[in-house]
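Tokens for chain A. Residues wanted.
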């Protein structure tokens, strides 16, 4: 689809304001990287630069007013960047469901993968049932009373967060006592189950995927990216390394795309990414996170059905390596939305 095919069509770029959750963060640069309004502006500008009529809309507390504003704008499709409607990450699928009920074509994944993949333990059970390797795990709703039976070290993380929320170097623990302490911490701080996973400490990769899984628009994996750990003192992509430019790990854990990988490893990453897309019925654009173990075997950590799409984020970087400028990526995602139609 070229901008010409989109002639006269209007796109509403929808994002959820994270102002409330950012209120406690003093560092302005950090607030800016986390602010979805910035991504919404980039997407809107990118579409406008390609000659597509686009305007951004905030997903506020009043959904009736939102539906009215789409109607008065005359939106033909929605570029859906909603992550936390009503300031609640668990309501991420509801935004997509609302757009379906309004009969508006929208970009990205539908409510099912958004809901399922938000639950890391459920995602892992589904992956395992399809024979896709994922680290061994236990899920705890309370402080563990028995031995986990897992191989140490393990990582303890909230079961339903993203953006490395709740993940610090302290999340890696070496014994059953450490599991107890961290599980208690996660349950108390995040009010959700704690996921305890075997720690897979080899290389880390993520792979973007485009497509609707249809004959016309089959899944296509983008070139794999590696998260390179330049300083061995860091073992994970923690909250600080992802979001806090003043933290040393921010500069010492750096994405590299395309990743320097053997043909075999590239083929493995591509095949598993497309298998994940099929298993979860992904649509539009997504990203799968991986690590390798000491023997170089690949494990899927999680599937991200709503990855960050700002120009400096991983998906745009992978798309560039795959031959799409930022504007071309946005147009492709929009084309996939129109190809899928109202859902
Ligand atoms: N089982 C694991 N083994 C090794 N590293 C892990 C494991 N789980 C998480 N990590 C590290 O923590 C980071 C964030 O974990 P992830 O499950 O992808 O959560 P998020 O949804 O916050 O991205 C990963 O990018 C990786 O560096
Ligand atoms: Mg991740």
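Reply:
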């Amino acid at each position: 689809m070229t901008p010409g095919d989109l002639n006269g069509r209007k796109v509403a770029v929808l994002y959820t304001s994270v102002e409330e959750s950012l209120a406690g963060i003093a560092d302005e640069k950090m607030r800016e990287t986390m602010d979805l309004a910035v991504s919404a502006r980039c997407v809107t500008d990118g579409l406008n630069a390609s000659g597509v009529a686009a305007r951004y809309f905030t997903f506020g507390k009043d959904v009736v007013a939102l539906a009215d504003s789409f109607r008065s704008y005359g939106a033909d499709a929605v570029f859906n960047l909603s992550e936390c409607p009503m300031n609640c990450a668990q309501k991420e699928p509801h935004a997509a469901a609302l757009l379906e009920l309004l009969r508006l074509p929208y970009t990205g994944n539908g409510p099912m993968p958004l809901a399922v993949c938000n639950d890391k333990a459920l995602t892992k059970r589904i992956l395992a049932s399809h024979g896709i390797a994922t680290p061994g795990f236990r899920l705890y709703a309370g402080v563990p009373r028995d031995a986990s039976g897992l191989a140490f070290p393990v990582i303890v993380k909230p079961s339903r967060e993203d953006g490395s929320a709740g993940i610090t170097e302290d999340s890696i623990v070496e014994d059953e006592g450490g599991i107890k302490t961290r599980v208690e911490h996660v349950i108390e701080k995040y009010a959700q189950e704690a996921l305890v996973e075997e720690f897979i400490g080899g290389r880390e990769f993520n792979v973007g995927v485009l497509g609707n899984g249809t004959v016309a628009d089959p899944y296509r994996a983008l070139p794999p990216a590696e998260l390179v750990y330049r300083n061995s003192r860091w073992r994970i992509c923690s909250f600080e390394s992802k979001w806090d430019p003043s933290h040393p790990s921010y500069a010492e854990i750096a994405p590299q795309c395309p990743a320097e990988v053997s043909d075999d490893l590239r083929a493995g990453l591509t095949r598993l990414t497309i298998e994940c897309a099929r298993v979860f019925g992904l649509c539009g654009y997504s990203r799968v996170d991986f690590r390798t173990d000491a023997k170089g075997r690949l494990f899927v950590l999680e599937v991200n059905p709503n990855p960050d799409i700002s120009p400096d984020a991983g998906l745009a970087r992978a798309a560039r390596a795959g031959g799409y400028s930022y504007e071309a990526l946005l147009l492709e995602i929009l084309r996939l939305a129109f190809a899928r139609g109202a859902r």
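The chain has 13 helices and 13 strands. The two ends are 20 Å apart (CA to CA).
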